[in-house]
Each structure stands twice: as structure tokens, then as C-alpha cells.
User: Fold this.
Amino acid sequence: MTVDSDVLESARAHYLVAALEGRSETAATVLDMVLLKGIPTADVVSEVLAPVQAEIGSLWQDGTISIAEEHVASAITSACLHLPRLTEAPRPDRGRVLMVSAEGGWHTLPAQMVALTWRVLGWDTRLISPSVPAADLGEEASRESGVVAGVSCSSAAHLTGAWRTVSALRAAGMQVIVGGRLFDGSSELAERIGADAYAADPVEGSVWLQDAQRSGKVPREPRLREDWEHLEMVWQALPRVVEDSLRLAPHLAELALPAEQTREQLWLMARTCVGATLVDDPGLLSDHMRWCRQVLAGQGADEGFADVLVATIDRVLPEGSARVRSLLAAAV
Assistant:
């Protein structure tokens, strides 16, 4: 183990404890100490903050910590991203870039961490996060001088939003790179929704930005347009689908969660159904169901309630939902 890796491992452990205990000043001190040892900001983000946030998410998922504890820890990380020593950056000399969250994505930390990394690597980075409607983003992007953009998406529930965001940026002439947990190990999925590239981390993404910015603005049509024509009606009906499902669920099984939490899980499940149908990948819904079962088990609920959620959605889908129903059957 090198000196730097030893320092980073120790920092991860101490920062995680401080974040979970709600000690923001201690968390900031841990990061300051690492930076004073000469560790670059990009490494602090990718080797301390990002893995700690992933661990916090896993602890919430398996029920080790509460959602309140997860929110406090995440708020500490969000605040730490604005520490003066962490945000020191050279004069931007690499060009202009947008960093945006997928439409419907309200978790801002991933996009914030990428934007910070790109700034310290010399990019003039404009962060647009959380969720911005794709149409509004497209208008804003068309006025931008830069020709490259990054899109962050962590959940299959926001895959449709990511596609809409990428499509808007394409139409504005942007070259687009995507990242986030959803795309980990799946550059094919990134290509499927129209992205020009996928990067596992912001440093790797910065290398791609350097090559991509040489191209001028050339508006391009969105991918999957014909597929969307058959799904847009279902997408627009999702608010009613969720509410109808919430009313039906107690008739199929005793609610495993309070109504508001059940509604949230229905929203995630329904959006994942549409996204998985759009890219014709039942595995995305199967993966989401496994995640849902883990969350239910972590909250002390019957994990089989995930199947009830799918059954209720299947029963209340509007006419013209044959493709979604077919995917539901394949995934289950």
C-alpha cells in the first residue's frame, strides 16, 4: 500500500464515522488534513467522498441507518463540497462544459462531485442540478458557447429522464457523456439512449471532454424517437397509474409500508417500467425489484411486497400498454 492510498483509506474511515454521527466540523477537518498532505482534490472526491456516499446508501438500503441519518450524512457531504481548500481551482483553460442531473433526478451530490472535479481540472463548468425539464434545458443549452455536456443518472427510475435530457442536449448540438451508478459497466446502455460516451469517473470523463470539444455544434435527432411515440402516453398517465395502484394494493395484500412510502415505491417502480421498456431491457426492472426487496427487508417489511407493487401497476396500466405489460411479465 502506498502512502497516498494509506492516507485515503484512513480518511474514508474517519470521514464515514463523522458523517454518520452528524459531526460536520470533524468531517471538514478530515478533508482538510488530506488536502494538506498534497492529495489532489480530484482524488479526494473519487477516493473519499464518492465511496463514502455509496457506503452510506448501502447502510440505508440494508436498514443499518435510518433515512434521517442518511439525509444528515449526505447534507454534510454537500456542505463539504464548498470548503474553500477543496474548491481552489486554476483559471479555467480547457473550455466550457455543462454538468446536469437527469430530468427527474433530485439527488444532486453525484453531479456536484463531477462538477467540482472538472473545475479543479481546469474546465469552466456550469452545474445545472437538480432536475430541470428537458425542454427548458434544451433552450438553455442552445444558448451555451460550449459543445460538451455531462449527464448524471443513478437510478433506472430516472432512465427516461436521462434519455429526455440527453435528447435535448443532442438537439442543442452538444456532445454528451453520461455517468452514474445506472451506467456502471454498461456503455451499451449509454449509447442506447443517445449518449456519445460513458465514463466511470470524472477524471476519465475529463479526458473524453478534451477530445470531444474539438467538434463544432451539430444538432442531432434523439435516439429511440419511434419507441417513445408508443410510450409517451403511458409516461403521461403515470400519476394516475400510481394513485390507482395505491388504492388497489390493500385489496391484494396488507400494506407493508405506510401509504406515503408505498406511493414512493410505486413511483420508482412505474418509472423504471417505462425506462426499461424504452431501451427494451427487462433486466433493469429485475434489478430494481431486487433493490426494492432489499429496501423492504431493511425496513422490516415483507420483501414479497415488491411483487404486489408490480401486480398493481400491471392491473391499472392504460390501454395501449402492451409493451410495458410484456416487459413486466419478462422481468417478473
